[in-house]
Structure formats: structure tokens, C-alpha cells
Amino acid sequence: xxxxxxxxxxxxxxxxxxxxxxxxxxxxxxxxxxxxxxxxxxxxxxxxxxxxxxxxxxxxxxxxxxxxxxxxxxxxxxxxxxxxxxxxxxxxxxxxxxxxxxxxxxxxxxxxxxxxxxxxxxxxxxxxxxxxxxxxxxxxxxxxxxxxxxxxxxxxxxxxxxxxxxxxxxxxxxxxxxxxxxxxxxxxxxxxxxxxxxxxxxxxxxxxxxxxxxxxxxxxxxxxxxxxxxxxxxxxxxxxxxxxxxxxxxxxxxxxxxxxxxx
Length: 263
Hints:
By secondary structure, the protein is α/β, with parallel strands linked by helices. The chain is 43% helix and 12% strand. The protein has a five-stranded parallel sheet with strand order 1-4-7-10-13. The chain has a five-stranded parallel sheet with strand order 3-6-9-12-14. The longest helix is centred in the N-terminal third of the chain and has 26 residues.
């Protein structure tokens, strides 16, 4: 096959007319500028908001392919919700600094905690998810996923003062509902019982009521599964059924230790 034939074959197999990776890069740049605008004290809000609007217009051009669903008015509604979202994120940071004895300052939470970063990008993406903005909210949370190891689908509903400790390996599915003052540790999965395309737009992931703590590597699965308020789920637990309020759930594996007599 000569060079021109190879080029022709490659073009023939590039089948997605809207697959433009500039959208991914520009979404990541928008996410970075938005994060710094909200939190970095030296980043001027009044100067950055017009820049963010311009960047958002570029995302609209690249992401909104359907003329019947114009996205151009979303920015006006989005920016209106940023103050309330920032207030929620400050509550998340306070929940972390008040709940983690290893934290030396709240500035450490904003700058060094991957769980906080993942929650922040989730909350900023969730607004766009609710607006029906295509692709961008998912690209935002996947950007955070790549940096933190925390996979929060932008469709999840998360209440106030949410705390992810250590962060790595956490998975929160699209239809999960998490109420207020919930704390989870690394490796927790709030997932579906199984995956099937016909389950789209049905509740597949669990509900976590307020004041619940879920320890490391617990898996809670299923759209009908509800963890009652004030409950504690122990590490490595596997739950596919609901738990009443004020419960403590333990995973109790048998562990045997043998010590050599001549050691």
C-alpha cells in the first residue's frame, strides 16, 4: 500500500465527524481557570469572569452540535449559581479540616487534598449536567479523576459538607444520592448491581442518608439500596441491601496468624 492509499484508508476509518479533541483540552483549561478564579486569592475575579465567558463560548461552539438545543444562554444561568456553589465548597473544606486530625490548616485542604479537588470539580460540573450541556461536565470530572483517582459522575446528587478522606479509588455513580455530612474513605464504590444499556435514566446507584461514615474499600450497590442516617459502614463491606438508620455494619473475615516456633 503506497502513502496516498494509507492516507485514504485512515481517512475512511475516521468515522466520528464531531470528535474534536480541542474540546477536551479547552475544557481542561476552562476548569483550571475556573478553579483558580474561585479559590486563589491573587486571581482577580472581576478580570477572569469575562475570560471564562469567552472560554465557555468556545466550548459551546465545539460541544453543542444540535441546533435545536442551543447552549449559548447557559453561561448566564451558570455564573448565577457560582456564589452558592462556592459557599458549598467552603463547607466541604471546613468538614475536612474539622474531621481530619492530620490537617494543619484549611489552606492545606484547598491546595493539597485530592478529595476536595474532586468534589470541587464535581460541583462545578454538576450545574452543567443539570443544564443538559453535552460532554463538557463529563470531561471536567474525568479531568479531576485523572489527577486524583476519584471518579464522581457529574450526575450524582451530593449534599452539604461532603468529605472524601485519602480519596484514591473512590467511585460514585451517575444516579447516586448522598445527603449531608457524609464521610467516605479511599476505595469506596457507590455503584450499580450490574451494567446494562437499557438501565439508562433509571436509578442504579445507592442512596446514602445524612451523617453516614463509610470506611475504606466498602462497596454499596444498587438503586434501591439505602444506607440509613447516622450509620457506619465498616471497611471492605459488600452491601446490596438497605441498612436501617443508626446501624453499624462490619465485614468480619476470618484471619489466622501462625508464628514459627523456632523463630
